[in-house]
Amino acid sequence: MKEKKQTILNLIFLILTMNVYLMECGCPVSDNPSQMFQCLTINPQAFIDLISKGDYKSFCHMANGYMTCMTTYVRDCLGGKAATGILEELQDLNLKCCISGRTQECVVKNPALLSKCFSSDNLITMADGSTKSIMESKIGDSVKAIDKNGKLIDSEIIDIIHKDLNSSTLFKVFYDSNGNRISLTNSHLINVNKKGYVKASEVEIGDNLKFFSHEEKIFKLFKVERIDYEFKEGFIAPLTYHGTILVNGIDASCYAEVNSHFIGDLAMLPLKFWYQLSKLMGSSSQDQVKSIENVKSYYEFLHRFTLTYLPFLLK
After folding, report:
1. Mind listing the GO biological process terms from this record (predicted)?
2. What CATH class is the domain 118-314?
3. How far apart, in whole angstroms, are the C-alpha atoms of residue 253 and residue 169?
């Protein structure tokens, strides 16, 4: 009884503190503070995933709820530029996909909303053991990756699938007890012990990720102790020849949205063949970049084909 009373007092204190903060920063506050906290539990990435899969009915229901929260209870106080950008995009999608029915304009225009990437504050490990910002990744870089047997190997970056320095995106962030972390979008695949490569959305507290300790030069288990959702500016999705990459020392796939890392590897075979062929022909690094750019439309075709004929691979 005493613990329950203390919990209620803590909640009241938290609500009062938030109200004071919002009034001090000049934000209009809802008459019902509990509604404001309900808004904070909404995960925008979830319904963005719905529309990318063509589930317009569920999207319309969730988007309306989010817009009601943002415009009625929270407005422009929370989320900053990222929340404002998502709200504007949702209003546009709601008009074209829900109010007017499905039209040819019923598409997501903001690439940040459908990004399947890593955040800009992650680090990658180079072949020589040094680290650098993942945003500095470029085609031709040799980085540390994991082979199909779980061994640490060197692998070339053969493409940068997505990259944006300025767009704000919602990331899922995993922390262990030692302060190590990794942030990536919900649909990105990451290696979980005894589960294999699964979407970040499926990772739970207590799961173990595969972590390479640079100090000890061995693989250790990264036990997920905390999970947060954070808006961050900048995202990138490098693709290595082996389809994996060490991000902040953690074994992650280069693929997203698909349910299987193996399927992702198969889908990228034409791109890998093209890259190897350009190397055999003696193309310079600059020419390789241009040749890869020429097959960018392959990604768009692959996504449309999967949505139309193999949607079960994305669920």
Report:
1. cell-cell signaling; intein-mediated protein splicing; protein autoprocessing; system development
2. mainly beta
3. 19
Contacts for 151 with CB less than 8 Å, ≥ 6 apart: none
The torsion angles phi and psi of 152, rounded to 5 degrees, stand at -75, 130
pTM over 0.70: no
- Cα dihedral sign for 53, 59, 62, 68? positive
Q: What are phi and psi of 121, to 5 degrees?
A: -90, 10
Q: CA–CA distance from 274 to each of 73, 124, 160, 279 (Å)? A: 52, 25, 15, 9
Domain ranges of the chain: 2-99, 118-314
In angstroms, what CA-CA distances link 275 with 126, 145, 155, 280, 309?
A: 20, 18, 13, 9, 27
Single-letter code of the amino acid located at 40: L
DSSP per residue, the chain: -HHHHHHHHHHHHHHHHHHHHHHHTT----S-HHHHHHHHT--HHHHHHHHHTT-HHHHHHHHHHHHHIIIIIITTSSSHHHHHHHHHHHHHHIIIIIIS-S-TT-S---TTTT---EETT-EEEBTTS-EEEGGG--TT-EEEEE-TTS-EEEEEEEEEEEEEEEEEEEEEEEE-TTS-EEEE-TTEEEEETTTEEEEGGG--TT-EEEEEETTTTEEEEEE--EEEEEEEEEEEEEEETTSEEEETTEEEEEEESSS-HHHHHHHTHHHHHHHHHHHHTT--HHHHHHHHHTTTHHHHHHHHHHHHH-GGGG-
**192 vs 50 pLDDT, higher one:** 192
